[in-house]
Amino acid sequence: MSRAKGNGKAPDVGLPGDTPLVLAREGAHGLVVHALNAVAREAGIGTGARVTDMRALCPELIVADADLDGDTRALERLVLWCRRWSPVSAADGTDGVVLDATGASHLWGGDGPMLSHVQETLAGIGFSARLAMAPTHGAAWALARFAGDTRVVCEDEEVAGQLASLSPEALRLNGETVLLLRRLGLKTIGALIDIPRLSLARRFADADDDRSHPLRRLDQALGRVAEPVFGPVDPVRHRALVRFAEPVMDVAPHVAGLARDLCRRLARHGLGARALRLAAYRVDGETGTVDVATAQPNRDPEHLARLFEGRFDWLDPGFGIDAIALEATLAEPLEEAQARLDGDPEHAVEIARLVDRLCARLGPDAVVWPGLNESHIPERAESWMPTFGAVLRMPGGICSVERPLRMLDPPEPVDVLYSLPEGPPAQFVWRRLVHRVLRHAGPERIAPEWWREPGSARLRDYYRIEDSDGRRYWLFRDGLHDDGRGGPPRWFLHGLFA
Amino acid sequence: MNIMMPQTLPRVAVRVAPREVLHRALQMQPASARKAPARRARLCEVFADDRDGAGAAAVLAMAVQAAGQTSGGARDGRPLLWVQQRMATHEGGALSARGLAGRVPEGGVIRVAARNAADVLWVMEEGLRCKGLAGVIGEVWGAPAVLDFTASRRLSLRAEAYGVPAFLLHLSATPRPSVACERWRVRSLASSVHPFDPQSPGEARWDMELFRARWRRPGRWIGQHDRAAHRLDLAAPLRAGALADEPGEGKRQSA
Questions:
Q1: Which residue of A44, A99, A229, B223 is 20 to 30 Å from B143, comparing CA positions?
Q2: A164 shares a domain with A126
Q3: Chain B neighbours among A 373-402 (CB < 8 Å)?
Q4: Interface probe with A: pick from B76, B78, B83, B98, most Cβ of A within 10 Å
């Protein structure tokens, strides 16, 4: 169930099958084992142990970082995915899913066949699952984790019998309570059932939650107390679909109608689309998709339909397209807005739509806004980002020395005549033309940012240069003659002034 | 020219001296309005060398000034759209945010990276349709085949129809036929003297040659960007008296 951080691949890809592998998370005293494979378990490693200790136990151990957030998100998706068997499902702890199969199992041919179907389907997507079907949530939890078999069906009258031989841990109790019960000599749930209720209730009267109250847990497992399953509600999908009587080769004329339909649905929920996906279902079962995004939530059908213009080249119609669906994969709240008195939309809205059209054709990073960072290194001092509507503002505390309007990226090396060791440039050759320097200002020394760069980074002396034709450049000398960080310094042309 | 005599003038004046009143009304109009009948958005082309930052700076100054004029002088925070062809970025450098600071009003600049000249033209046409922009600047390197007379006509019509001024900056190109209202050639000039340090470059100055214009007489000026007023100042060069002979454009004027 656990996954490794990083590329999203399973951590054991490319490793031989007999490699012990663990996923580690941060513990109080260094890394601890979060999850492990079967080989590692055979080697005697347990979850929660410190990775350094386990390395001593098993030197060839491979350790990868656990992605806990990724696990949580994957579990949330899996919970929704499991609704194919029953409409009520919820996450159960960090590593389980509970389904309320009341009235659903007969659709799959009974309890046993349903469990085997679930197990096969989960195996198909790469999960090894332990399953149990029981009348109560607590009993199913216990049997799934502590029964010997990976697939257990427990009938109504068998609950007490099947639970009796399991350890008290199977009652979803916390570690302290389990330890306490063990010290009291209660090694199985059966022993706990035999204790009179009154004495158990009195012993655990001050327990403040279910996890430290064995009697309450026992009641839940045996069905004396109701424990309904509360799952997340189904996310609303904003999707418009049109099916064709005859397969079509060109979907472009139908997109406008789909967009109108989708926008009506979005308007009902007060939403606007931020990302759209057009899916074309071909007669041979293939699906082609086109994705577009918008800078601001939008539900103007004409605008949304226009974003797909010229994007249908990617859709291979094959023998024809049966149906197309337009889905808002990301929707955000959008209030009804009033147009201006002259009937035009607001400027910001208009620009957002322009940006959508440009990005749909040129790519998501083609339209950028300027941003300034607090750094003296010129490349790092500014960043052009695709953040909609960023306003150019000088951050405080940064000197207001004139900077070139155009910057070369990367800086181009130039051959410079200058008086050693640190004189200003007198003449330089850039792109095979000689520029004679008439006036200069500088140097402006910019030291490397030692907290970001390697120790071998050299300082830069920047000069503002005006040549004999009046052209103004920004040159810098990379390093000093005797700084011991490489050979003689090189010169670069970094920018062109206004 | 709107002179609504029957409504605005007293009947006596109309009857007594209509010709004189008309003459006086003409006198009161500013000289620039007399030459260009409608001060509206249009296409303007600038030719510059790609080894020189003067072209970009002059275009920026023109665009900022035009933005102030089209919106009635009010700075309403509308941004400029600056489209750069990839080749122009490679050869002449990319627009720098630090360099822009202080040169543009609060609306700022949106930069668009286009692969080729056809994309630049498409982006410009889309941008000109958007009234939320203060102006559209397209930057093209060399003389691509798509940038022909028809393309300039399309840009010009859109600029006039939607009221968004358009500027085309040609780097390393020779002028070809176009319908642009103004066509400039911009080069760097020796900068003005720095007030505190004669050794260092001062305020940038450009040699700006208007070699074709529809509403005004071509000429040659020394241009300078007045950053505080967001204006392009044009001054007649000292020894070019023949070019500055027009009465309205004597010493110093604003384009």
A1: B223
A2: yes
A3: 378, 381-384, 390-392, 394, 400
A4: B98
Which residue among B103, B130, B200 places its CB closest to the CB of A440? B200
Phi (first) and psi of residue A246, to 5 degrees = -120, 145
Residues A330 and A240: beta-carbon distance below 8 Å: no
B111 burial level (CB within 10 Å; 0-12, 13-18, 19+): buried
Mean pLDDT, residues B42-69 taken together: 90
| Min Cα–Cα distance to chain B from A483, Å | 28
Give CA–CA dist A275/A86, Å, rounded. Answer: 30
Rg (Cα) of chain A, in Å, rounded? Answer: 33
What 3-state DSSP class applies to A250?
coil
Q: How many domains does chain B have?
A: 1
**Does any domain span residue B83?**
yes
Give the structural domain span for A353: 238-361
Determine contact: A441 vs chain B, CB below 8 A.
yes
- Is residue A358 within 8 angstroms of chain B, CB to CB? yes
| Chain A residues within 8 A of B103 when measuring between CB atoms | 405, 498
Question: Exposure string (b/e) for B55-70, b if CB count within 10 Å is 16 or more?
Answer: bbbbbbbbbbbbbbeb
Contact B53 A357 (CB under 8 A): no
Shared domain for A62 and A80, answered yes or no, is no
Q: Indicate whether A54 and A23 sit together in one domain.
A: yes
The ipTM of this complex is 0.79
CA B167 to chain centre: 7
**How many independent structural domains does chain A possess?**
5
Asked whether residue B21 is domain-assigned, the answer is no
Say if A328 falls within a structural domain. yes
- Residues in chain B with CB shorter than 8 Å from the CB of A471 are 51-54, 188
Q: Model confidence over B155-212: pLDDT tens digits?
A: 999 999 988 999 999 999 999 999 999 999 999 999 999 889 999 999 999 999 999 9
Q: Which two tokens stand for residue B15?
A: 């009857």
Alpha-carbon distances of A145 from A6, A96, A212, B232, B233, rounded to whole Å = 29, 10, 19, 78, 82
Domain membership of residue B2 (yes or no) is no
Q: Considering only CB atoms, which chain A residues are within 8 Å of B126?
A: 354, 357-358
Cα separation, A288 vs A282, whole angstroms: 8
Domain final residue pick, A17, A50, A66: A66
Looking up residue B54, the CATH number of its domain turns out to be: 3.40.50.300
Kindly report the pTM of this predicted structure.
0.68
Mean pLDDT lowest among A486-490, B88-92, B227-231: B227-231
